[in-house]
Design a protein that fits this description.
The chain is of the alpha/beta class. It is about 40% helix and about 15% strand. It has helices spanning about 5-10, 15, 50-60, 75-85, 100-105, 125-135, 155-160, 170-185, 195-205, 225-240, 250-260, 270-280, 320-330, 335-345, 370-380, 390-410, 410-430; strands at about 40-45, 65-70, 95-100, 145-155, 210-215, 220, 265-270, 285-290, 305-310, 435. Helix 3 (about 50-60) links the parallel strand 1 and strand 2 (about 65-70). The chain is globular.
């Protein structure tokens, strides 16, 4: 989304909100009080576990700026709650927001541009992560908090048993899946799952997809763009020929397949060790992590699955103080170490990805002592993402349509599913009053 500003974003939603114009509100808004003017109290809506313990560290060192955490649900429920509160001018000072939710919140005039209050912060994050909080423009609508770079996880012991090589390209990935089926017909390299849209979005991101772009006052939806079609055709083809499984993730059946070795690999994110600990407890120490396969040999790019940010709301009367706290939370070594320990996150700040609590591999991956060193190198290659104001609609449509395609197990069904997600997303934007390019 090149050169996007909140003023242009807001203009596109003026009709929806019943306003003739929505003025951009920066951190220099009148009424803003800095810490220097006296003690202030800030409210922070967040869902990450243990956030109150992290914030307690701030409060102990900053008596003039007290932050109170109010635990919230995550996902669409929180986005709706923030928008509702913003329209009533009762929003908190700070919110934890997933990256894909930021355009929705900005277009509803819920988040402040804090660019002037966070100088020098940009270089502390990978470009692809920073871009998700700025939309490629000059405004800064949040600071990255955690990220979920995609990686390839595989059973090291079973790869050795069946004479398989770790794939470095998607062509090699497909060949490995076919080779395994010949050697062990009852086993699969992995599965295509439609019950978590974030994984597919991350794979499309790696391929160069731009699902939403913005120019002037007009949105363009490209969920069926060439990059995404390549990803859809690839996975649909493997499902159709029976080279991989088609069952959804996180079910008892999937857990069993992961635990018994019926599935040998999982395309997932840096947080996978935590999931595997529960899903496949008997395989601890048998997995290894490698970079995501590339579309072009010698390439170096990954997508992301998950991640959130810290944003300051337009309602806050203490934007400078709120931005100061957000900067501390997401860049200070003490705060980042606490986030890792108390909240279990993988920090977006690059310096924190190999230090402190992340200097040692996850217990589940004790056999790979350089786990986080490799993860940090992969995280630096995160490709830019292009989110829009109705990600929730696209994600819901994906689950419905690709769930049908996975069961149908035909290439045509995957193509139909992708077109259906595109149509549903465009129709929803138009219904909401956005101008959409044809």
């Amino acid at each position: 989304m090149p050169h996007i500003t909140r003023r242009s974003l807001a203009a596109a939603t003026a009709a929806l909100l019943g306003a003739t114009a929505l003025t951009a509100c920066g951190s220099s808004d009148s009424g803003d009080e800095s810490a220097a003017s006296g003690p202030v109290s800030l409210t922070y809506w967040a869902w990450a576990p243990g956030m109150d313990k992290v914030v307690a560290l701030w409060n102990a060192e900053h008596p003039d700026i007290k932050v109170t955490v109010q635990k919230q649900a995550s996902g669409d429920d929180l986005v709706t709650k923030i928008i509702t509160a913003a329209k009533a001018h009762k929003a908190p000072d700070l919110v934890q927001a997933e990256y894909q939710a930021l355009p929705t919140l900005v277009s509803n005039d819920a988040l402040a541009d804090i660019a002037s209050d966070v100088p020098g912060v940009k270089d502390k994050f990978a470009p692809g992560i920073w871009q998700q909080t700025t939309f490629g423009g000059d405004g800064v609508y949040a600071l990255p908090q955690d990220s979920g770079p995609l990686m390839f996880f595989y059973r090291q012991d079973l790869f050795k048993k069946y004479g398989l090589s770790v794939p470095t390209t998607w062509d090699e990935f497909a060949a490995t899946a076919r080779d395994l089926k010949k050697k062990a017909p009852k086993q699969s390299l992995t599965t295509f799952s439609a019950n978590d849209s974030g994984l597919f979005a991350g794979l499309a991101q790696q391929a160069g997809a731009k699902w939403w772009t913005f120019e002037g006052d007009t949105w363009k939806v490209g969920i069926d763009d060439a990059a995404t079609k390549k990803v859809s055709d690839f996975w649909g083809g493997l499902v159709a020929e029976g080279a991989i499984d088609n069952q959804p993730m996180y079910t008892p059946s999937w857990n069993k397949a992961m635990n018994t070795g019926e599935q040998l690999a999982w395309v997932s994110a840096v947080w996978a060790p935590g999931t595997l600990t529960t899903a496949a407890p008997d395989t601890k120490g048998k997995w290894a992590m490698a970079p995501l396969p590339q579309w072009n040999k010698g390439g170096s790019s990954t997508g992301s699955w998950g991640g959130s940010s810290t944003a300051v709301t337009t309602d806050s009367k203490h934007k400078k103080a709120a931005a100061q706290f957000a900067t501390w939370l997401n860049t200070d070594p003490v705060a980042l170490a606490a986030l890792v320990k108390e909240s279990g996150i993988y920090p977006a700040a690059t310096a924190a990805q190999t230090s402190g609590a992340l200097s040692k591999a996850p217990d589940y991956f004790a056999n790979q002592p350089d786990f986080y060193t490799r993860a940090a190198e992969i995280a630096k290659t995160t490709a830019p993402a292009a989110w829009g104001p109705n990600v929730n609609v696209a994600y819901t449509a994906f689950k419905d349509e690709f769930g049908k395609a996975a069961k149908a197990k035909t290439p045509a069904a995957f193509g139909t599913a992708l077109s259906a997600v595109q149509s549903a997303t465009v129709a929803d934007l138009e219904k909401q009053g956005f101008e959409v390019a044809k």
